[in-house]
Amino acid sequence: MPAVAVCRQANLADVEPLYNIIEGYARRGIMLPRSRKVLERQIQDFVVAEVDGEVVGCGSLCKLGEELVEIRSLGIAEGHKGKGLGSMLVEQLVEEARRQAIPKVMALTYEVSFFLKNGFAVVEKEIFPEKVWTDCVNCAKQHCCDEIAVLKILD
Questions:
Q1: Structural domain for 147, as ranges
Q2: Cβ atoms of 141 and 110 closer than 8 Å
Q3: CA dist., res. 148 & res. 146, Å (int)
Q4: 73: Cβ contacts below 8 Å, ≥ 6 apart
Q5: Where are the alpha helices (DSSP H) in the chain?
Q6: Which of 7, 85, 124, 151 has its CA 20 to 30 Å from the CA of residue 112?
Q7: Which helix (DSSP H) or strand (DSSP E) does residue 150 occupy?
Q8: What is the pLDDT of residues 2-21, one digit of tens each?
Q9: CATH (domain of 143)
Q10: Cα(115)–Cα(108) distance, rounded to whole angstroms?
């Protein structure tokens, strides 16, 4: 029987699997780490992907202004990549931005082709002063950022 994948709103019981997924990426320097306390505080911003009841993916939305949200902490556990779970999570996060009537969804990423496949376009980071002053100002890579900015404008 094929595995059943679902996306749903995260809850406090998901903190540990969220932490483990994010930490795996953070150790490789491709995602900002998030403490368990931060995850608990921001749990309402997260969605998770479950396969047969196990949390194997996550992503969150962070509001950067009235017209802009950022997709953050988007990750899939090893062994579950390449199965469409990331696209399911992005679709759910984009729908949440629509529900909140926020017209622009951005991300900073190393996986440009994934975001292009999901309807985003590459843009200059400098068009997001909200992002720069919220997070980049505290980042070790602030002056040598190698992430690519992508943007999806919702209709």
A1: 5-153
A2: no
A3: 7
A4: 18, 22, 31, 32, 34, 46, 58, 59, 60
A5: 15-27, 36-41, 85-99, 112-117, 129-134
A6: 7
A7: strand 148-153
A8: 678 999 999 999 999 999 99
A9: 3.40.630.30
A10: 10
